[in-house]
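Request: Show me your protein:
***
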Amino acid sequence: MKTLGIIPARFASTRFPGKPLVDIYGKSMIQRVYEQACSSSSLDQVVIATDDERIVDVVKSFGGEYALTRNDHQSGTDRCAEVALQRPGYDIVINIQGDEPYIDPIQIDLLSSCFGDPEVRLATLIKIIDSEEELFNNNIPKVVINSRQEAIYFSRHTIPYLRNISGENYLAAHQFYKHIGIYGYTTATLLEITKLKPSTLELAESLEQLRWVENGYKIQTKITDLETIAVDTPQDLEKIIRLKK
């Protein structure tokens, strides 16, 4: 199987315009993501998908691969689908977040390994929650899985609800998982799910993966013990610079 890694990169971020081009110790964030992805042993090619010529110019400057896409995509998944159509011949697509400059290639390889099972069509990563701060943070999506490690539901709320258990005892009483926002799809499935209309659950939680669940798609998960550090705001950038100093 041939696997294509795609890094969606949008200049017009609502909370942090131009963030793919911010400097992190002499390299743009998008260059750092690209280099980390290229270190993955499971990807046959890595492409940055963008709708902005300013990002294209920077990608050209460090010799990266890029694909120019439409500017009306609602999600990174939609942008990945356009690139998959532009570059046929790949069986698997891995959607790598463009705002995680220090993503570990091991995580990409772990996700790619899900597709060793021919039944898997969609996959993502999850991580055990080990702090109350994460458990009750509505900005961190949680996920419930079944006995086959397939995702049953995603929510910004703490799930499952533990009846007759006080909040401070939740972690001792149950194993909770958070969602790590990297996705893998068979190319055929990627093209299918981008034709689906937004679902009621997706709109309620503002989580696009619920559209797939609501339409009957199974999402395989793998548990990672590695943390990801995303840059959503200028404050996040300051934190990551301090951590990597």
About this structure: The radius of gyration is 18 Å. The first strand starts at residue 3 and ends at 9. The chain has one domain: 3-125+179-243.
